[in-house]
Amino acid sequence: MLRKAFRFRLRPTPAVRQRLAQMAGCTRFLYNKALALNLNLLEQKQPILRYTKLCSQLQSWKQEEATLWLQQAHSQVLQQALKNLDRAFQDGLDVKQPGKKMPRFKKRGRQDSFRYPQGFKLRGNRVYLPKIGWVGMFKSQEVEGAIKNVTVSREGEHWFVSIQTEQEVRFEEEIVGGILGVDLGVVHQLTQSDGVQHPPVEAYRQAQQRLRREQRTLSRRVKGSNNWHKQVRRIRRLHQRISNLRKDVLHKLSHTLSQNHAVVCVEDLKVKNMTKSAKGTVESPGRNVKAKGGLNKAILEQGWGEFVRQLEYKLRWKGGRLVKVNPAYSSQECHACGFRSGENRKSQHEFECGSCGWDGNADVNGALNILHRGWEKLCEENVPVDVGCKPVEGEGVGLPVKQEPVGNCEEVPLR
Question: Among 83-92, 99-108, 211-220, 245-254, whose mean pLDDT is lowest?
């Protein structure tokens, strides 16, 4: 069973737009109120209220004079907000997920959304939302599968509806297709093990000068005035355009790779650790802060984490697989003989092995190392894969590794 979401932009009237904002405001208020209650219980070293008890508390809050306006929102929408909070506490308190953090308070205008588990209707290019009514939408494709829930969210000045569906998909017992190693970078968005390189994402870099001017103009406005709000909306539209350009590049690239390859091997990078600030403290200030800040900006602009996330679920839709490998020394190790040394990489682009003499593009060499490690991981797990090619030693100087047909993993010489 495969779950898939179809996302469309809504066409609300001014009255409907106000109702959508009110519904999002009710869910945000309830989420923050329940979060404050549970955090207070944790400070007193008492057990937090789970979803069932929070729903009982919701009934009493609806009867209080100060929060009587919560009755204007759909009851199931409010319950879904409490369910999200309960899930956030489960993840934050789970010792098996050290990367998860405790839930934080929501702020108006940031990630405004609410979800309907039932009661909605879909007819043509309109969707019916309980307590809001029929809302038009730009329907760009047909919705396939059984509809499970509907989520309404706001990005910038526009409202969107995400329709989650469930459908049964049958895959072949063996994955058929090609295997590919991918090296993520800054100079190139990614480099494939077959030698193909893709240009970097420059959405933010191209709009950086304009964004600087608009923010400088905002600093001269009186906060809270009409001109201040107009300038805020102008900056918000610019940020939304940058985000859309980045997503467009990542979606097209991940779609192409998932369509043409059954297995894609990538590095398991910790982007959050890689982009930590180098400022340090007052007692122990950092070095090369400006250079590190520029590198962090370039890494975040490429959207490595979002690209891997998109590629993973798109491969799963096609019956393929994403393999994450250890990235240690992938740029210093020779793919042909396995010799590892920091002197192998002569520059940003040049690689020359000090043992066997292989030389070529450094990023292509890294992608080939990722391909080898991914293949080793598949063979260790005994995954039934017939990818139609294997990594073997290349011939010539400066050429990527050639590929020959193979039947199974046992026949593959990794070096």
Answer: 99-108
Q: Tell me: the pLDDT tens digits for 198-230? A: 998 888 888 989 999 999 999 999 999 999 999
Q: Are strands 179-184 and 190-192 parallel, antiparallel or unpaired?
A: antiparallel
pLDDT at 98 over 80: no
| Number of domains forming the structure of the chain | 2
Rg (CA), the chain: 26
pTM: 0.81
Residue 298 contacts residue 239 (beta carbons within 8 Å)? no
The whole-number average pLDDT for the span 183-210 is 89
Nearest CA among 325, 323, 397, 402 for reference residue 366: 325
Report the pLDDT value the prediction gives residue 320, as an integer from 0 to 100. 86
Same domain? For 204 and 277 the reply is: yes
**99 and 218 co-located in one domain:** no
Q: What is the spatial distance between Cα 10 and Cα 152, in angstroms, rounded to a whole number? A: 9
The type of residue at 124 is G
Find, among 342, 378, 392, the residue nearest to 264 by Cα.
378
Q: Which region, left, alpha or beta, applies to residue 206 given φ > 0 means left and ψ of -120 to 50 means alpha?
A: alpha
- CA angle at residue 354 from 404 to 332, to 5 degrees? 70
Q: Catalytic amino acids? A: 183, 267, 363
pLDDT (tens digit per residue) in 305-357:
999 999 999 988 888 889 999 888 888 888 888 888 888 788 878 888 888 88
Domain holding 141, by residue range, is 2-167
Comparing CA positions, the residue from 86, 43, 74, 37 lying closest to residue 57 is 37
Residue 160 confidence (pLDDT): 96
Whether residues 94 and 182 fall in one domain: no
Q: Are residues 159 and 185 in the same domain?
A: no
Contacts of range 235-241, beta carbons closer than 8 Å, 24 or more positions apart: 235/211, 236/156, 236/157, 237/156, 237/157, 238/207, 238/210, 238/211, 238/214, 239/156, 239/211, 240/155, 240/156, 240/157, 241/207
